[in-house]
Amino acid sequence: MQRSVPPLVRRLPGANAFTRHIIILLTLVILLLGSALGGRLLGVFAQSPCAKGDASYSVRFGDTLSAIAMRYRTTWQRLATYNHIANANLIFPGQQVCIPGKASRGGTGGSGSPGGPRQDFVSLARQDALNVGFSPNVFVRQINQESGFNPSAISPAGALGIAQFEPATAASLGVNPWDPVQSLQGASRLMASYIRQFGGDIAKALAAYNAGPGAVQRAVRIGGTSWRAFLPAETQNYIRVILG
Known about the structure:
By secondary structure, the protein is mainly α. It is built from 12 helices and 2 strands.
């Protein structure tokens, strides 16, 4: 069967036979690559039903495999292996993730603690605080004040996720605000940096997390030792609730 010459080649003035062959070859390579990629993406959605006893989760925009794993009290490694996901960082909205039966019921097959997902997040927060040299008890109270350990929380001001990051703050930290694992790590690192910035003063670090470091510097400049009185009322209450 004779192959038709692509219109682009026919329109090239003075194109010799060698040039035409090269362009035809490149065109075929591009078509083959496009077909392979398209087939791979279609394969994501053309999945077999989950096994009997498994839970099925449909990936939403912003989901990560680690966040899904935490929700079902298992590990992202287990989900990746069980679902034949080669790259755990590459999942798509609409993709079906099968949750192994024991994990979906929160049984002993999962890695979660008896207290459920919230207790898992509390345990993660405590460990993240220890990793950066910050009081675990204070950090747990802080995240509880931020979101009640709800990874889907959205504030009226547009702060997102378990650590209530504004999108710009999350981007600067390199974390996905909807991923509780990343967010808790990012929040602990941010608090550690504020503690260093304000000479070990945890109250000022908390105020910086809530209102921004500029607001704290302004309050100190105006109020001196009475700096708390010059913070927004919300931030004053934030410090009082967390530190007592």
